[in-house]
Specification:
With 359 residues, the protein is of the alpha/beta class. The protein contains 15 helices and 13 strands. The longest helix has 23 residues.
């Protein structure tokens, strides 16, 4: 009898499981229905890994899987293996479209981030005392690119700026900003775009004569650095950990994200170059599956709030960034006051400058 009851109970349990599956087999509302794969700039990795972002995207029907690459190297990838590419500015997008065979794709620019130079406080003090920077507070200021590039052209040493003394022994050797590789990385390329504009009498370099005129200085800015990294993530993390160079090129978003997460910024001063080329992160849809994802990142209120939390400025919601970062005004120039914004050279000219700078 017990054996018969046991068999009957087992049958009922199996039947119950089947019933539950039959009743609940339909996916709950808000569960992702499309998996898309994309290649992104490394500065967006933490955004796409954020569990809140993953959930917000799933609620809109997406599971997003990403790999990282330098923005200017994306066109060399097997792009047909991806559903979208997401470089850190609009300039590489044209090359990506051509390489992926989707020329004329409906690109979206959901958010952007200016470039900044983060400095050790002693380095910022020395630059300020010698007219290469202007402090607006203890932890913020402006890098004066004209005087800074003049010092770079003259191979100025930190010791020279300190009057031959060793007041700050950690500051030694040639004065330079640590950047990424301008031939593959967006931040490094846009630093050259900005510097070449200032060196070219505040005019965008547009021809061979302009390249020849500015290339020697661009080479000095790059060659003095030694080995170059492919993304801003490595140098930024080194700086925050207390190592690395005294002047590092970064995205404002990296700083804003750090501050909003209440992480210790350590000995950091944020210097905004007085001339800059904006960096609108540009979403390039490659497959039909990812066609609407870019506009979703720009318009969905939840996703936009998460964009701000990760330090980016929404293209359609700059006021949201200003409000969210108000507690960190000691570091950030939310209104970009006093910053001259200029256009970038064409891809062909900028890559020629980058090649000459590395050559």
């Amino acid at each position: 009898m017990r054996r018969i009851l046991g068999i009957a109970l087992a049958v009922l349990l199996v039947g119950g499981v089947i019933a539950v599956i039959a009743i609940g087999g339909k996916k709950p509302e808000g569960t992702a229905t499309k998996t898309v794969r994309g290649v992104i700039g490394s500065e967006k990795s933490e955004f796409f890994r954020d569990p809140d972002v993953v959930k917000a995207l799933a609620d809109k029907g997406y599971t997003v899987k990403t790999e990282t690459s330098g923005s200017w190297a994306m066109d060399q990838l097997a792009l047909k293996e991806f559903d979208f590419a997401f470089p850190s500015s609009s300039e590489p997008a044209t090359e990506i479209e051509a390489a992926a065979g989707v020329k004329g794709a409906q690109n979206t620019k959901p958010f952007f981030s200016p470039l900044v130079v983060i400095a050790r406080s002693n380095a910022a003090k020395v630059l300020s005392e010698h007219g290469l920077a202007k402090m607006t507070g203890k932890n913020s200021g402006t890098l004066l690119l004209g005087p800074f590039l003049k010092a770079a052209a003259e191979d100025k040493k930190w010791q020279e700026l300190q009057g031959g003394t060793s007041a700050y022994p950690e500051l030694s050797g040639t004065v330079f900003v640590k950047t990424t590789d301008p031939t593959t990385s967006n931040s490094g390329a846009l630093f050259l775009a900005t510097a070449s504009n200032v060196a070219n009498s505040s005019t965008v370099v547009s021809d061979d004569a302009g390249i020849d005129r500015t290339a020697p200085l661009m080479k000095k800015l790059i060659s003095v650095q030694g080995a170059l990294e492919q993304s801003t993530d490595g140098p930024f993390r080194a700086f925050i950990s207390g190592s690395g160079e005294p002047l590092i090129l970064a995205y404002e978003s990296q700083v804003a994200s750090l501050l909003q997460q209440k992480q210790d910024p350590g000995d950091m001063v944020v210097l905004y170059p007085d001339t800059t080329v904006n960096s609108p992160h540009t979403f390039v849809p490659i497959s039909e599956k990812a066609k609407e994802l870019g506009s979703l990142l720009a318009t969905d209120p939840k996703l936009r709030s998460l964009v701000v939390r990760h330090g980016f400025r929404p293209t359609e919601g700059v006021a949201e960034f200003t409000t969210a970062t108000a507690p960190h005004a000691a570091y950030l120039n939310s209104g970009l006051t006093g910053i001259r914004q200029v256009g970038a050279p064409t891809v062909k000219v900028l890559m020629a400058l980058a090649a000459r700078a590395k050559g």
